[in-house]
Amino acid sequence: MLIDQADLLWGMDKLFAREFMGIAAPADFGKGDVVFQEGDPADCFYTLIEGRVRLSIGDPPREVYTIDQAGEAFGWSSLVDRNYYSATTECLEPTRCSRLERKKLETLLQSHPESGLVFYKKLAGILGHRLVQYYQLMPPPHG
User: Fold this and answer.
1) Superfamily name with CATH number, domain 5-137
2) Per-residue confidence (pLDDT) for residue 3, from 0 to 100
């Protein structure tokens, strides 16, 4: 799910890109810190700057993905009309992210509908890629 911010913002107008970067804030976490838990209110979208973050679901937790490339995104639940995160994120080492608050990002996307459309198309591609990777990790069905 690699999307560096240049790729994420490519094809969008310069004003949108500038405003997008203006609402992004750095967020630092230590090894073992939980960024958010499955079921927490989905109020932020993140892109990794450096570090490693494990995504897990269920109880007991089952790892579904590791975010370890600069520019990878997580917290997408905050952007697809979900009120709660669908996974738990734990930092496997000291981690720095870029955090965008849901309400600020929604306001920005609504005020730039053409760039918002491009942004959501890219988000859909990211989610599709992650889904394919998840399916590849699943054991074959018993038949």
Assistant:
1) Jelly Rolls (2.60.120.10)
2) 41
